[in-house]
Amino acid sequence: MASYKEAGVDVEEGYRAVNKYKEQAARTRIPGLLTDLGSFNGMFAIPKGLKEPVMVSGTDGVGTKLDIAFKMKKYDTVGIDCVAMSVNDILCSGTKSLFFLDYVACGRLDADVAADLVKGVADGCVDAGCALLGGETAEMPDFYDEGKYDLAGFAVGVGEKKEMITGKDISEGDVLIGLSSTGVHSNGFSLVRKLVTDFNEPFLMDGKPTGKTIGEVLLTPTRIYVRPVMEVLSKYKKSVHGMVHVTGGGFYENIPRMFPKAKEGKKQLISVIRRSSWDIPPVFGELIRRGADVNSVYNTFNMGIGFVLAVKEKDADAVIEMFNKNASKYSRPDTPDMKAYKIGRVAYSEGAVQSQKDAVLFED
Known about the structure:
The protein is α+β, with helices and mostly antiparallel strands. The protein is built from ten helices and twelve strands. It is 29% helix and 24% strand. A six-stranded mixed β-sheet has the order 8-10-5-11-9-12. Strands 1-4-2-3 form a four-stranded mixed β-sheet, with helices on one face. Helix 4 (111-128) links the parallel strand 2 (97-106) and strand 3. Helix 1 packs parallel to helix 4 (111-128), helix 3 (78-91) runs parallel beside helix 4 and helix 7 (226-236) crosses helix 10 (313-325). It is an enzyme of class 6 (ligase).
């Protein structure tokens, strides 16, 4: 008779992994958490004082950036990416995430590798100020190659309905403030992996060694914008009319998503971006040098801007100053300090907006 272990599923290794997860989840406890990791479900109390509470959710995965982690045998940062992709999306409504749940799938479970993945998830949750409420680990032999893992998750936040930032108040003349990314973040890696095949190559800047490999640079975790943005909203929420998480599709696909659709017969609001207004991280220049199409990189990557806010013009300078004053406080030791830039403005289109590219105009 065949056992489950003979079929490729090691239950004992699963128990060992869960025990390691519990150690990480304990670091993320915040008020409102009602259950511990290991229950059949996770419970979280809705914060008191909300008149019309609205639940806001987001879900995403790490994508093929995981392949670089496997090849570099560095598993403890991609969990941060996993959390960042969801909590940054939720943040666009002006809402902070309350909790996160993850999903880890593999062909053969190695509890130590899985624990490193979940450590990254816990690190991301701590950074975002949300609880790691639960998750699932699926060992599926003959479905995933041995040594390969998938990592995804989702987050949930709650906010007051009348205080949600929806983009409806965006108007002509609003200033676009860009917050710097840490690099490629977690999108566009199918192209990255086509351009870079040896992740142990030294990463050079101006022809000089940086002390890092290109794989290490590419594994820099996605910046989590929750704490700096929520701090700014605590003072300038009425001046922030819209927000964008620059993810897959880059500038062209994401920035137009915050604009309200023009009423019939009215002009459409668009963004005018000054390309020279921020510092582009060297990794993007390296990808272009290796063959990335310079004409489409802004439609693929964040190009150094991971989050954008549309802010009332009279408060834009004060918002930028507040972001930059507190930048180091909200940056991880393994990432560069966040910087805020005035990257453009909101304007009305001159002609018809027939595609997303018509809604993002670049000027030098």
